[in-house]
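step: validate -> pass
step: tokenize input -> pass
step: predict -> running
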Amino acid sequence: MRLHANARTCPKSRRLLVERVDAGWSVIDAADAAGITDRTARRWLARWRAEGVGGLLDRSSAPRRIPHKTSPERVREIVRLRRLRMTAAQIATALQMALSTVSAVLKRVGLGKRSRLDPPEPPNRYERRRPGELIHIDIKKLGRILKPGHRVTGDRRGQASTSRNGKTVTLAGWEFVHVAIDDHSRLAYAEVLADEKGPTAVGFLERAVEFYAAYGVRVERVMTDNGSPYVSHVHAAACRKLALRHLRTRPYRPRTNGKASASSKPFSASGPTGVSSKTALSGPQRSSYGSPTTTSPDHTAPSTTSHPAHD
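step: predict -> pass
step: emit ->
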């Protein structure tokens, strides 16, 4: 049951009100004790005497009948035209109805957005046949914390800041977690770097390839999103130099590269970083910055499904 945000009473307090009146209190005294007017108290008393305990519950404020409600036949016609991918304005013109009415009907039936017309896509889980056939790379941006902020201390004066071009800019900044994960073995490698520019991404890619080579894994393909460091000429040149085939996800579909995004969740869960550093992480993570931590492929668990993905 949902109560009004400013409701003075609830079913329990209304029950107490009628019990006090039955015990000999005057209606005015019982209403004053409940913080309501005697008129409101008499209304609850009348509902109690007519309906019992059920009368003390809140009722829906919706009208019992709407004479001018859109007929079911007209609603079905609106839905039929919507299935033809017509806009609300086009449907309103075709049926000679108010646009607001058509929009309200579409929202009520769950077809307010065109994306709702298509059925949800089934999960497309896949796994490459061997390690190194494909690695996923992504970047996670985390805010750096130098010391407790004003939400903890209540004092904004202690924030580290400087003036640039006449504007006050804080000095905390951001950390960028570059993550690479093998599609088959889930062996992961990550570094916390200062930015997400093309040369930085290239350096991370080269070190990631060396990391996998140390485990006898030859990287063949790299999958990234369409971020600026990955569409740069310097990144394309690095892929050619390393003999890597570069695959990019379709725009506005980040789930295609979801394995790399999921591997960066531990960084978000542990909170923003405190100092600028470079860290190699894989599997169980270690909190000491600057010291590489890796996990051998024996400790990684591939997914239960094994379906080859096509380029």
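step: describe -> The chain has three domains: 11-56, 72-117, 135-156+168-299.
step: cleanup -> pass
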